[in-house]
Amino acid sequence: MSKNINFFKNKITETWPGKKDISTEFIFYLKEKLHLSDVSIYIDDYSLSKDEENSINQFIALKKQEVPLDYILEKSSFYGNNFFVDPRVLIPRPETEILVDFINKLNLQSGEIVIDAGTGSGCIGISLAIHNPHIKVYGLDFSKESLEVANKNKNNLKVENFTTIYSDWLSNIEDASCNLIVSNPPYISSEDKHLRDLHHEPLMALTALDNGLADFKTISRQAPSKLLKGGMLAFEHGYKQEREVSEILKKNGFKNIETLEDHQSHPRITIGILSN
Ligand SMILES: C[S@@+](CC[C@H](N)C(=O)[O-])C[C@H]1O[C@@H](n2cnc3c(N)ncnc32)[C@H](O)[C@@H]1O
Predict the structure, then answer these.
(1) For residue 120, which of 89, 109, 202, 206 is within the disulfide window of CB 3.0 to 4.6 Å?
(2) Domain boundary assignment for the chain
(3) Where are the alpha helices (H) located in the chain, listed in sequence order?
(4) How many CB atoms within 10 Å of residue 145?
(5) Who contacts 275 (Cβ-Cβ below 8 Å, separation ≥6)?
(6) Is 246 in the pocket of ligand 1 (CB under 6 A)?
(7) Is the distance from the beta carbon of residue 130 to the nearest atom of ligand 1 less than 6 Å?
(8) Could you tell me if 274 and 103 are in contact, meaning their C-beta atoms sit under 8 angstroms apart?
């Protein structure tokens, strides 16, 4: 006999008592994946087909393994576009939109070249390319699997001015070749207890040696020879890393260092300009 929506709504509340977020995700799943309307979900107590039931059982099985909803839906909304995501890449975070927004307001000139170092899904580089069709953006990553996802997003979103490069940070970038380097590198220390909650995301996208600072140091050391005169380096970082990241930028010859806050008023983005 076919089951109704309310059967599964109740099953979810019983399985995760008091966890409203899973019930909210379930409703989102019904709309996004099964294309059910509010009327079917809230009023009609819609009677599900066998395929729909199987799909919901799959959702419940994945949530029991704590798989994030974006991986289940293979979709993540970022800066007004939907990006394909799967466990090969980090799920884009809302705070990263602040970095993109800052750069979009810089009024980049025609032909300027931007490097997105550690592009992952391509969310930063592709968003910049879409909003600045007159610039060229290169998204690099040392994970070939990430580059496959970034290319899938480039094709899905029909972005011509974004190109991927396989590179260990800036090692495959030509000297004096770009105006801006932007990066959201891995910045979590491998000792950090929050890592336990992120066990479905690629470790390579999350952790860095040296208390989470190693990749800021590598990129900041490599960037001065890759940037053109007056070039900019912009980082997203952990909310307790502002002082260290500013110091690293200063040590490598960057000036006019500025930090922006995220939506929780935590210092989150630090930018420096190459002084000579
Ligand atoms: C925090 S994720 C950021 C992904 C994406 N830019 C975003 O903001 O959602 C860091 C990215 O850096 C990449 N990465 C790690 N080590 C790298 C290296 N040595 N060279 C280039 N990319 C690297 C990871 O594969 C991952 O895609």
Answers:
(1) 89
(2) 5-65, 78-274
(3) 5-15, 20-32, 38, 50-64, 69-73, 96-104, 123-131, 144-156, 203-206, 209-212, 214-226, 242-251
(4) 14
(5) 253, 254, 255
(6) no
(7) no
(8) no
Structure tokens at 104: 């979009």
Contact criterion met (CB below 8 Å) for 89 and 146: yes
pTM, whole model, 2 decimals?
A: 0.96
* Residues 64-115 pLDDT 10s: 999 999 999 999 999 999 999 999 999 999 999 999 999 999 999 999 999 9
Distance (Å) from CA 94 to ligand 1 centroid: 16
d(CA 126, CA 43): 40
Q: So what CATH class is 78-274?
A: alpha beta
Name the residue with tokens 């029991």: 64
Rounded to the nearest angstrom, the distance between the alpha carbon of 155 and the centre of ligand 1 is 20
Spatial separation of the C-alpha atoms in residues 223 and 237, rounded to whole Å: 17
CA 76 to centroid of ligand 1, rounded, Å = 17
